[in-house]
Specification:
The complex is a heterodimer. Chain A is about 35% helix and about 30% strand. Chain A is built from ten helices and 14 strands. In chain A, the strands form three sheets. In chain A, strands 6-7-8-3-9-10 form a six-stranded mixed β-sheet, sandwiched between helices. In chain A, a hairpin with a 5-residue loop joins strand 1 and strand 2. Chain A is globular. By secondary structure, chain B is an all-alpha fold. Chain B has one domain. A two-stranded antiparallel ribbon of chain B has the order 1-2. Chain B is globular and about 60 Å long. Classes of the chains: A alpha/beta, B mainly alpha. At the A-B interface, helix 2 and helix 3 of A face helix 1 and helix 5 of B.
Chain lengths: ~300, ~250
């Protein structure tokens, strides 16, 4: 079953800006789906329409088979949204923010209290339940929004840049939490500017640009299209200049660090054998850039080239 | 989906909001009206004497109570809903399966409750200065309730259309306050020259104040039935306008 079906969705704002030019999108139930795109591509408009914050110009959206227009209440009941920016009342306590949201979804008081406790504990916020939310750190505020979005146990959770501006430690813990939520059966749609995040978490991906879906496939098949990987090599001894090895593009970053572009069809074995032959000892190796980032840029560049 | 829970949640949140800030919401009207009664009712009123068969103090009590109901029911909804919009908490409601009618009913109920609460506080303070025997309690209560409803709806529309904090103070300062003062709170329109009497009859607040005055002390300058019909007509109109704005998402959706 599809958690989300979008058909020929268009949105033109009052100022004439055409944000969506007829997109089609399907997300399977249980999926962890990435919706990516550069700024102004149409991601936020798409999410806004799905979550009823923006009125569409035409087209249809259905959530778990419930049409957002014809069957609004049921469609909305299936959805939870974690917006990009903090949008709760900063003068309310953590508990009341989550509890009130349960009320908006019609949960009876006893169940609402249970769900509030469950979600706050899951987000590690139970100790902060009576704290006025404006006193929380940025990471905690993000977790409050996730707890709020999950209080009615939605089948589809939309996370709009949930880790923006949080430190790496919190980001990693939030990744783990998101994976757990997904494993418990909740479909997740994630938008993020950290492409590493999408690559690590998501199974399927759509890339939106200038109001069109330019790519919609599985993460593995998308990544398989990448022909070159970049590696950073830490060397035991300093080098005066970058070595020249046929088939590889090697750049000297510092006297003991090299950046090597490795074509997939060539691989690493030949590189290491050639470095050994030149008495260059490699101490460690790491993947330099995020692979999805490379693909993302390729796709956007290709699109721009096509337009010009 | 149990919509009554959503409604109760909004109303409870609204009540907690204005009670939490009671020094801003409940205390000022108590002090202001005590001063009105003291200065206008006691010091000046003693020199005015009888008006329409009752003492001046008794005459101004209904108008002052209803003026408090008007300003506070309006202020509650306009400030609360605009803040909700400004801080984008409105998205909490728009994302959830809460029908527009429940959103409207929730906020308007909050305004009505604050209006009635302030009205009650002012009425209790008036007991320190006046000795009023309520003539038509049902009329008084129904006028109070309908007036609070009407101005809560007006506050809601103002909040929906407002784009800045300035926009939510223009109507109360430049429309509501003058209309209230010119609506016969402190005088009978019959005391005015003919031309000003005719102009005053175009002020809807005049009808509400007189209807309430009739309910409280049995004195009025206008036809009570007309006052009720006018108030109900405004309520129906403003309800439809509010629902239209919510349906279209004007002022609250991109």
């Amino acid at each position: 079953m599809n958690a989300l079906s979008i058909r020929n969705l268009k949105k033109t704002y009052n100022n004439g800006f055409e944000a969506l030019k007829g997109i089609d999108l399907e997300v399977q139930a249980g999926d962890f789906f990435a919706l990516l795109g550069p700024n102004g591509a149409g991601k936020s408009t798409t999410i806004g329409i799905i979550s009823s914050l923006v009125n569409e110009s035409s087209g249809s959206v259905s959530i778990f088979g419930h049409d957002l227009k014809a069957d609004r209440s049921l469609a909305k009941s299936c959805l939870g949204l974690v917006p990009q920016e903090v949008n709760f009342n900063q003068f309310d306590t953590v508990k009341s923010i989550v509890f009130n949201q349960a009320g908006y979804y019609g949960l009876p008081r006893k169940l609402a209290l249970q769900r509030t406790e469950h979600c706050l504990k899951q987000m590690d916020l139970w100790d902060k339940r009576d704290t006025v939310s404006r006193r929380l750190s940025g990471g905690m505020k993000r977790r409050v929004m996730i707890a709020r979005a999950m209080v009615h146990a939605p089948k589809l959770l939309i996370l709009d840049e949930p880790t923006a501006g949080v430190d790496i430690e919190i980001r990693r813990s939030m990744w783990q939490m998101m994976q757990e939520v997904n494993q418990q059966g909740t479909t997740i749609i994630l938008t993020t500017h950290y492409l590493e995040e999408a690559e690590s978490l998501c199974r399927n991906i759509a890339i939106i640009d200038q109001g069109h879906i330019v790519e919609n496939t599985s993460m593995t098949s998308l990544l398989a299209r990448l022909h070159v990987d970049h590696f950073v090599l830490d060397l035991a001894d300093p080098l005066a200049k970058a070595p020249v090895i046929s088939g590889y593009q090697i750049e000297r970053i510092t006297d003991k660090v090299l950046d090597v572009a490795v074509p997939k069809e060539v691989g690493l074995n030949y590189l290491f054998s050639q470095l050994s032959a030149q008495n260059i000892t490699v101490v460690s190796l790491k993947n330099k850039s995020n692979r999805l980032e490379q693909l993302f840029l390729n796709l956007i560049d290709a699109k721009l080239a096509g337009n010009t | 989906m149990n919509y009554s829970i959503a409604y109760r949640t909004i109303v409870t949140k609204e009540i907690f909001r204005f009670i939490r800030i009671w020094p801003q919401t409940l205390l000022p009207p108590a002090i202001t009206t005590a001063l009105y009664f003291l200065i206008f009712g006691k010091l000046i009123g003693d020199r005015i004497g009888i008006i329409n068969g009752v003492s001046y103090m008794d005459y101004i009590v209904p108008g002052i109570i209803l003026m408090s109901v008007i300003s506070h029911s309006y202020a509650n909804v306009v400030s609360s809903f605009y803040s909700t919009k400004f801080q984008r908490n409105i998205e909490e409601l728009l994302v959830a399966p809460v029908p527009n009618s429940i959103i409207l009913a929730g906020y308007v109920s909050g305004g009505i409750i604050r209006g009635l609460l302030v009205g009650t506080v002012v009425a209790l303070i008036s007991l320190l200065f006046a000795d009023i025997e309520v003539k038509n309690p049902y009329i008084a209560l129904s006028v109070m309730l309908l007036t609070a409803t009407l101005f809560s709806l007006a506050g809601f529309i103002n909040a929906v259309l407002a784009e800045s904090f300035d926009d939510i103070s223009i109507i109360p300062n430049f429309v509501l306050t003058p209309l209230s003062y010119l609506g016969g709170v402190f005088y009978s329109v019959k005391m005015l020259p003919d031309i000003w009497q005719s102009i005053s009859l175009g002020n809807p607040i005049l009808y509400m104040i007189n209807a309430f005055r009739y309910g409280l002390i049995g004195v009025t300058d206008v036809d009570i039935r007309l006052a009720f019909m006018m108030t109900v007509g405004f309520i129906v109109t403003l309800t439809l306008v509010s629902l239209f704005l919510l349906y279209k998402g004007i002022g609250i959706k991109n």
